[in-house]
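*** Fold description ***
***
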Amino acid sequence: MATNTIKSFLPQELIRKKRDGLILNDIEIGFLVRGISDSSLTDAQLGAFAMAVFHNGMNMDERISLTQHMMHSGSVLQWQDLNLNGPVVDKHSTGGVGDKVSLMLAPIVAACGGYVPMISGRGLGHTGGTLDKLDSIPGYNATPDEAQFRNTVQQVGCAIIGQTAQLAPADQRFYATRDVTATVESISLITASILSKKLASGLDALVMDVKTGSGAFADTYNMAQELAQSIADVASGSGVPTRCLITDMNQVLGRSVGNAVEVLECIDFLVNPAQADKRLLQITLDLAAHMLHLSGIEADLNTALVKAQNALEGGNAAEIFGRMVSALGGPNDLLQEPSHYLKPMSVIKPIIATKGGYVSAMDVRSIGMSMVSLKAGRIKASDSIDHGVGLTNMVQIGERVEMGQPVAYAHVHCDADAIQLQRELTASITIADENPQEKNMIYEVLTAQQEG
């Protein structure tokens, strides 16, 4: 009976229904998602549907339905047959500038007994992408077949790869349409897009890092809260316990921005954690603790935090990162000889402070766009990346600099690029006479509303 009902639907009538602010039921949403997957829904109809949702939103039942239908539009990974001796747990970040946390976080959690099948994305706009960073490692295969992916997770404990054509394929087409129809900024559609891919990974638990501030997609706190609550409710309503941390993105995360330079910072973080940037260390270990706690590996957050610290400081996380890189085609000695594989640029020049004082603010989005203009990021998905371009030794808010001292180092191809960054970065970094009050890295932790 349901099949006959589905066949009687007209896409334009369902679009009209959502356009008029009415609620779509599960069967209607399933029909639309099938139309996205098999292209029976035209590009024009898909764009119209996206715009209708953009203007009218979806209630919680609709969001859960859309997420689950997109999740099941392709293969859903199963791990039970591998008899893993720990939970399958992942983390997703909404993205920022200098956000390289995943590269350290996955091996830390794996070293603590979790299994992390991390499906990551490429950068778009001013935000960097985890896969672009990994692509700077010679030989690293970010798109292995499912057998190699599963085997790496089983043998190493983690694997960071890109979305495959088999994983939530409806989302791939839907996102491409949203990108060109000005409908990306919809909480309902963002929620379904993120979670359809993550839940298709067969997770036991998920931790979200929802960033807010000048370098984040959710630049206002209200938007970050709305998105975090939506993700927590939809994921938990789909059977995957989820916790969302709202975190600060009002300054570059860590000391580097770029691709190869961020991988180098990650390697140094894993090998020399005592020298790691304080904020980067805090957010990485806090996310690890939440993953270990939510997945049941540890009974409380304090114990989980200590376990994560021990895995990092004892070298186990670094060892697992090296094994993951090797298992996915990268060099066996990346940790021992990183500069051999991640070669420096021809021009490395300091960006000089034009006045003395305390670093009080950053226009992080502008810093990210400065990198994009030199091909360290991309405006559209088809753009190529220059993996060597970047910034290192970035100052942080609250640090004092004197006029003529470096606020960062530019890694570029020519002097003209360095001059451009000198002009753009000094305009993006505010230096004041008074030391600003230090902000918390984590603003709030949200769970599904029915959980309190």
Remarks:
- The CA atoms of residues 364 and 401 lie 18 Å apart.
- The chain is about 45% helix and 15% strand.
- The longest strand covers residues 205-212.
